[in-house]
Amino acid sequence: MSTTPQTPHDPQPDHEWTDAGFATRAIHAGQDADAATGAVVTPIYQVSTYKQDGVGGLRGGYEYSRSGNPTRTALEAALASVEGGSHGFAFSSGLAAEDTLLRAVLRPGDHIVVPDDAYGGTYRLIARVFGPWGIEHTPVNLSDTDEVLAAIQPGRTKVVWVETPTNPLLGIADIAAIAGHAQAAGAVLVVDNTFATPYLQRPLELGADVVVHSTTKYIGGHSDVVGGAVVVGAGAQLPAGMQGPTGTTSLSDAVGFHQNASGAVAGPFDSWLTLRGLKTLGVRMDRHCANAQAIAEFLEGHDKVTQVIYPGLASHEQHDVAARQMSGFGGMISFRTGSVDSALAVCDRTRVFTLAESLGGVESLVEHPAKMTHGSVAGTALEVPDDLVRLSVGIEDLADLVADLTQALR
Ligand SMILES: Cc1ncc(COP(=O)(O)O)c(C=O)c1O
After folding, report:
1. Active site residue 14
2. What is the DSSP letter of 318?
C-alpha cells in the first residue's frame, strides 16, 4: 500500500490505541486532548481556511476544510480504529460516502453485484445514477453464496456490494465465504456495516476490502445528524488492472482523492456529533441487542404476527452464519402481519415507537418499508412485501416497548 497521504491530514487510525479494547478506542483513538488548550473533547473547528506560516507553511497540514478539518480528522481516525482499517473518510451522508467510493472503483462498462434487498437508496444510486453512466448491475440473494459467486463475471465485475444484515429483510451474507471469490475475480468487496456496526461485526477482519456506513444510524445514535463513512482495509487495492487518479493502485489513495475532488465531506459540527455518538456505541448496542432479542421472541409468540425476521432467532434462516460473524444480533426487527391494512394499523397505533424513517437512534421507531423507506424500489426486483413492519428497537425500558406493541397489535 502507498504511504502517500491522500489529504493533508492523512486520516489513519491512531496507532497508540491499536491494542486497546473497542470502547477505549471509540473514546480515545484520534481524540487526544486539544494541543492548544487541553480541552478533553475534540473542539468543533468551525472554520473553512487556515493561516499559513509563509506560502505552503501549513500548521498540521491544514489548508482548507474540504481537504481536511481537525474535527473531521478525529472522527476519521476513530472510525478507522474501531473498524480495524487503515484509513477512514467521513462524508455528509451515507449515500455521499457510497457515491464517492463507487466513483473511485468503477468505470463505464464495469459490472457490480448488488443485494436484491439492499437499502433502497443504495439500489437507486447504482441502478439510476450509475446505470446511465454505463455501469451494469446484477441483483442477487446475498444469503445464497452460490448465487453471489455465479453472478461474478471475472474481469468485468469490479465490485461485489454486500449489506449484512440487509435493510429491511435482515438477510445475512457470509462475508468470509464471498471475500476470497470476489478478490480472486479482481473485484473489490464492499460491506455496508450500518446495521451491525463495528461493535458487532468487523468485515475487514473477515476479508472485506472496504466498509461503508450511514453514520446517521447507530454510530451517530441520537437521530440528530446525517453522515456517512468509508473505511478502507490495510493494503486494499483498486480492482485488478485499474490505475487510480494519484498514479497508485491503492484504494485509500483513490478514495481520499475523490473525497477531496468531489467534496461531499462531513462538516465540523456533524463530525463532532458523530464522534460524540461513537463514544457510547458499545453500551448502546448492548441495550439495543437485549431489547430487540426480547421483543423478537415476544412477537414470535403473538397470534397476530405471521412471521418475525430477526437474526437472533433460531428460526432465522442464516442464524448460524450471523452467530459466527457477529457478536450480537443488532436492534432491527422486521415482522409480517398478513395484510397491508393490519401492517399500517400497527404503524398508526404505536405510541412509544415513533412512526418515522431512519433507524439506530436511542428512541424506538416503527415504519412501513413498502410505503416509506423502500418506496423508491417499488416495481423492481427489490420490492418488499406490503404487510412488512420494520422496528428500530431503541434503548427505552423493555416493559414499555412490549406494552406499546401489545396495544398496537390488539
Ligand atoms: C443500510 C443503509 N445504508 C446506507 C444508507 C444511506 O445513508 P444516508 O441516509 O445517511 O445517506 C441507509 C439509510 O437508511 C441505510 O439504511
Report:
1. no
2. T
Number of domains into which the chain is organized: 2
Question: Would you list the DSSP string of 292-317?
Answer: HHHHHHHHHT-TT-SEEE-TTSTTST
Domain that holds residue 344: 282-409
Could you tell me whether strands 136-140 and 332-336 are parallel, antiparallel, or unpaired per DSSP bridges? Answer: unpaired
- Pair 234, 125 in one domain: yes
Same domain, 305 and 234: no
Q: Which atom of ligand 1 is nearest to the CA of 98?
A: 4
Please identify, among 279, 307, 326, the residue that sits at the C-terminal boundary of a domain. Answer: 279
Known catalytic residue at 336 = no
Whether 371 sits among the annotated catalytic residues: the reply is: no
Atom in ligand 1 nearest the alpha carbon of residue 216: 10
- What backbone phi and psi angles, to 5 degrees, belong to 138? -125, 115
CA of 331 to the centre of ligand 1 (A): 15
Catalytic status, residue 64: no
pLDDT per residue over 3-54, tens digit each?
A: 333 344 566 777 788 899 999 999 999 999 999 999 999 999 999 999 999 9
Domain identity same for 190 and 240 = yes
The atom of ligand 1 lying closest to the CA of 96 is: 11
pTM of the predicted model as reported, rounded to 2 decimal places: 0.96
User: 50 and 178 share a domain?
Assistant: yes
- Within a domain: residue 400? yes
